[in-house]
């Protein structure tokens, strides 16, 4: 993991055309369109979405990758309890196809993990491809006793300790603990989901 950047913007080492900054309200439409493009219409039905529904991201830990004045990547972290151990859940990480070769995904990861550590968080968990996330220090070494509220592949549940021993003895269900969205925003989110996702009998 790279050292914490002291400025709001962080440039990737591979391309100065991509900058990482804190997410803004004006990013919402572009972020949602990017997530739809990367994960499909059923993304609201995925297991990890149950940990995000009706919640706000962890304070100061929602980031956008921007290139040429437009959003090309997004990453957010969320408060969870990992079997009673305070942790962050990372995701979703999404980068538009044309910006992946610029290292936008790696830049988002490095920036987010450094920011999380600087804010005193001790562990991060995610559901993703082990070969990709291993480069950032994630592994399944201490997540074998943890579960998610839905179907998931065991070898894709990965953890990273920002403080040594933070996930020692982690066992049980991962549940959301972050602040709830204001009722009006939560209702709008449910309404939007109802339009996007057909009901199943």
Characterization of this structure:
InterPro entries: Acyl_CoA_acyltransferase (IPR016181), GNAT_dom (IPR000182). It comes from Bradyrhizobium archetypum. One of its GO terms (molecular function) is acyltransferase activity, transferring groups other than amino-acyl groups. Residues 18-163 form the N-acetyltransferase domain. Keywords: Transferase. The protein is α+β, with helices and mostly antiparallel strands and 201 residues long. The chain has a single domain, classed as Aminopeptidase, CATH 3.40.630. The chain is 24% helix and 25% strand. The protein contains 5 helices and 10 strands, in the order E-E-H-E-E-E-E-H-H-E-H-E-E-E-H. Strands 1, 2, 3, 4, 5, 6, 7, 8, 9 and 10 form a 10-stranded mixed beta sheet that branches. Strand 1 and strand 2 (18-22) form a beta hairpin. The chain starts with 9 loop residues before the first strand and ends in a 5-residue tail after the last helix. Mean pLDDT is 87; it is low at 2-15 and 194-201.
The helix fraction, in percent, is 10-25%
The CATH architecture name reads 3-Layer(aba) Sandwich
Low-confidence stretches: 2-15, 194-201
CATH class: Alpha Beta
Output the radius of gyration. 16 Å
